[in-house]
């Protein structure tokens, strides 16, 4: 350990003056960029727990909460639609991501095998969909004809497999040595055994990245819900958040609030709703961060 520190210090000492200037510039620039990127989120968090009148009167930076309280969060969670939308979103994320990973894994495994007929043609057709697609109207007609309109499955099955994620997972599967599959087949293993007991356990970094990609997509998805859903009991959280932010639909949360206080309280409710809608997915990143770079690199470089 001491020897490694010594080598690191020696490498720094060997840097030329322009290299040190460049490093200092990089550190300064990235620090400023991080502050600029993080401050809007910090501002929303501070505003959501501050006194609404103070937030309405404040112009410019706000670094500490004033009149600390959780009234806005109480009003948010007192709204039954928020709770219902939360449960709906968890359903879409958990069930949708599970189906995504299962189908993407099956497709990637089949297309990564060298003895699959017309493998290149199938891959060409899959890649073709990344550049050309039918559009919204054919998709709507398809969902309607399948009887999934105004149902939970309209948000899950039409996006069950992402072509981009399929290519990443296929490339990762191709990097696994063929000798492992050959040994398993000698022992009598079939394709499902090879996939679920050999390929997937060896590809956990890529699987973790796929969980993150699909999970974030389902969590943030609102457009398809707006197109395919009419029953408000099926709305995801992001669609309710959109109504609150764009349609200004906070009146139902402010029963008993005077008209003069309605506007500032409505603003803090918006901030609290943003935190409620984004915090869970932000908490997921630290658990998958260590797999992220490794998984993307494995899936992006053909072995």
Write a structural description.
With 303 residues, the chain is mainly alpha-helical. It folds into two domains: 2-48; 71-300, MetI-like (MetI-like fold, Orthogonal Bundle), CATH 1.10.3720.10. It is built from 14 helices and no strands. It has helices spanning 2-13, 17-48, 52-57, 71-78, 80-112, 119-131, 136-145, 163-174, 178-186, 191-202, 204-220, 223-228, 237-246, 259-300.
Give a brief outline of the structure.
It contains 14 helices and no strands. It is an all-alpha fold and 303 residues long.
CATH class of the largest domain: Mainly Alpha
Order of helices and strands: HHHHHHHHHHHHHH
Q: Give the CA-based shape.
A: globular
- What is the name of the CATH superfamily of the largest domain? MetI-like
Please describe the biggest sheet, giving its number of strands, its sense, and whether it closes into a barrel.
none
Just name the CATH architecture of the largest domain: Orthogonal Bundle
Count of all domains: 2
Task: Calculate the mean pLDDT score and round it.
Answer: 82
Number of strands: 0
* CATH fold-level assignment of the largest domain: MetI-like fold
Which regions contain 5 or more consecutive residues with pLDDT less than 50?
299-303
What fraction of the residues are assigned to beta strands by DSSP? Answer: under 5%
First and last CA, distance = 33 Å
Residues in helix, %: over 70%
Using only C-alpha atoms, the radius of gyration works out to: 25 Å
> Which structural category do the helix and sheet elements fall into?
mainly alpha
SS summary, helix count: 14
